[in-house]
Amino acid sequence: MISRLLFALAGLAVLAAPAAGQAPVSRATAEIVATYPHDTGAFTQGLFIEDGVLFESTGQVGASGLRQVTLETGHVERQTALEPPYFGEGSVQLGSSIYMLTWQSETGFIFDAGTFERIGTFDYEGQGWGLTHDGTHLILSDGTAELRVIDPADFSTMRTIEVTLAGRPVRRLNELEWVDGEIWANVWQSPLIVRIDPESGAVTGLIDLTDLVPPALAGSHDAVANGIAWNRETGQIYVTGKLWPSLYEIRISE
C-alpha cells in the first residue's frame, strides 16, 4: 500500500521522512460501513451534508448543476442547472447560502439553500476546483498546492495556505471538506485523500481509497475519487467519485 500512496501523490515521487519538529504522517485505508446508489451520470465536483441532507454539485459543460439527493436511494429531490459555458465545480453551504465554483470562468454562483434560487455571483482569479468552509470563511482550491481562505462578505482572499508533505508542495488539491478541525482534500488523478492542518498547511495523514474505486472505472482519467462529505452532527464520513455507481459511508482504518 505504501508504494501506491507514494507514487499516486501528485508531484511527489518519494515520501520523505518528516522534517525536524514535524509529526509523522499517518497512513490509512477506508473501510466500507455502508453502500448507497450514486448517479453514474454525475460528474461529481462537490459533496456536502447540511442538517442531515446530502448535496452535490456536478461538472461538464451542459451537465453542470447543484442537486439535493436522498442518501439512501440516490434519488435527486431537486436540482438547478448551470447553463453553458459554465463548468461546475466545488460547492458548500455557509449560513443560508450555497456557494458553487466554476472551473475556468472565474465566476462563482450563490444559491438560496432553501429554494435553490440563484441570488448572486462572485469573482475570483484563476481556476475554481474545490470549496469548503471553517464555519466562518470559505476555503477554495484551484488545482495548485495553495488553498485560499476567502471572506464571504466581499470574497477577498484573507490568507493562503501552502499545503506540503514533508516540506514539499502537494499539488492538484481538488474537492475539499472540513472534517472536525482539519481540511480533507482529494488529490486529482489519484485515489488519495490528504488530511491538512489548516494553520500550517502540513499534511498530517493520507487516506487510500483504492479499494473503493469501481473495477470498471479503474485507470480512468475522468472517473476519479472526488467527493467527501462529513456529517458534523453524527461524525459520519461519506465518499464517492466522478461517474461512480456508489457512494460509501466509510470508517478510517489506520
From TrEMBL:
InterPro entries reported in the protein's UniProt record: QCT, WD40/YVTN_repeat-like_dom_sf
- Kindly list the GO molecular function terms attached to this UniProt entry: glutaminyl-peptide cyclotransferase activity
Keyword field contains Nucleotide-binding:
no
Which segment of the chain is annotated as a signal peptide? 1-19
Per its UniProt record, what Pfam families does this chain match? Glu_cyclase_2
Q: Which UniProt keywords apply?
A: Signal
The answer, when asked if Signal is one of the entry's keywords, is yes
- Give the protein's recorded name: Glutaminyl-peptide cyclotransferase
Q: What's the source species for this entry?
A: Maricaulis virginensis
